[in-house]
Design a protein that fits this description.
Largest sheet: 4 strands, antiparallel
Radius of gyration: 35 Å
Distance between the termini: 120 Å
Bound molecules: copper (II) ion
Length: 278
């Protein structure tokens, strides 16, 4: 029993501690300020991609597309094009044209620079507006205004006059040659083997034949012989193949009479018509 005292004291201390705890608890619960929402880190202005220090003007590089192969690119990997209406070392693109097809320019005394894999001759020509345009093997180079990033080549085969350039494209005797799919003339109907009456071939960024007349109920079959994908898309949206990859086909049965104009959504200059009659 000699330990009863300390034990009693212990209980008393315990009770006191308990009371104190209650007071503290009451006190603290009253005093604790409502938790303020942790301040979210003040949004520090995220620096937009810092422009690369002095951009190299007139840098010509090489990009690869699984379908089209290698083609020349300029700033930020954007596609470069030739224009078949130009001639060797001579741009004929007016101000109206270059509004959509900005020339690849260099400024001051800069010389164009070839990136890895770009063999051939880079040089410059003076434009009528006194700017200096880069040429590749004598071919004036342009961007397409609707291409916004690397890998875009919406200008390919546009109007049948603008083409991407592979390494090795040349201008000779004044003529611009060697663009991707430029120099293979569209198969003339006479030269191609008698096509089935319900078949359309897609080659060299064109439909052949461009007009086809079929009976109601006919299934027309398109075959993409190009290395690039194309679509068969009705102007009235009554049919749409979506992308037809290289070597693939698309079939559409025409159950009602009428004339159906269609185009490739990727290359709007590719147009043709199916006439369905009895
Ligand atoms: Cu197309």
């Amino acid at each position: 029993m000699t330990r009863s005292h300390p034990r009693t004291n212990g209980l008393q201390l315990g009770a006191m501690a308990g009371a104190l705890a209650l007071v503290l608890a009451a006190c603290s619960s009253a005093a604790t300020p409502a938790p303020t929402a942790a301040p979210t880190a003040a949004p520090t202005a995220v620096p937009t991609a810092a422009p690369t220090a002095t951009p190299v003007t007139g840098l010509v590089n090489l990009a690869q597309d699984v379908k089209l192969g290698g083609y020349l690119t300029g700033a930020q990997g954007k596609s470069l094009y030739l224009w078949t209406k130009d001639s060797k070392d001579k741009s004929t693109a007016s101000a109206g044209v270059i509004a959509n097809w900005p020339p690849l320019l260099v400024t001051g005394s800069d010389a164009p620079t070839a990136g890895t894999g770009v063999t051939g001759t880079l040089a410059t020509i003076k434009r009528d507006d006194a700017t200096t345009q880069v040429t590749y093997n004598g071919i004036p180079l342009y961007y397409y205004v609707k291409d916004v990033k690397a890998g875009d080549f919406g200008g390919q085969a546009l109007n049948g006059t603008w083409f991407l350039l592979p390494v090795g494209a040349t201008a000779s005797s004044g003529a611009i040659k060697g663009g991707i799919a430029q120099d293979t003339p569209a198969a003339s109907p006479a030269a191609s083997p008698a096509a089935a009456a319900n078949a359309v071939t897609i080659a060299n960024f064109a439909f052949a034949p461009t007009t086809l007349k079929v009976a109601v109920g006919t299934t027309v079959k398109w075959t993409n012989n190009d290395s690039a994908p194309h679509t068969v898309t009705a102007n009235d949206k009554s049919f749409d193949s979506k992308n037809i990859d290289a070597g693939k086909t698309f079939s559409q049965t025409f159950a009602t009479a009428g004339t159906f104009a269609y185009a490739c959504t990727i290359h709007p200059s590719m147009t043709a018509t199916i006439t369905v009659g009895n």
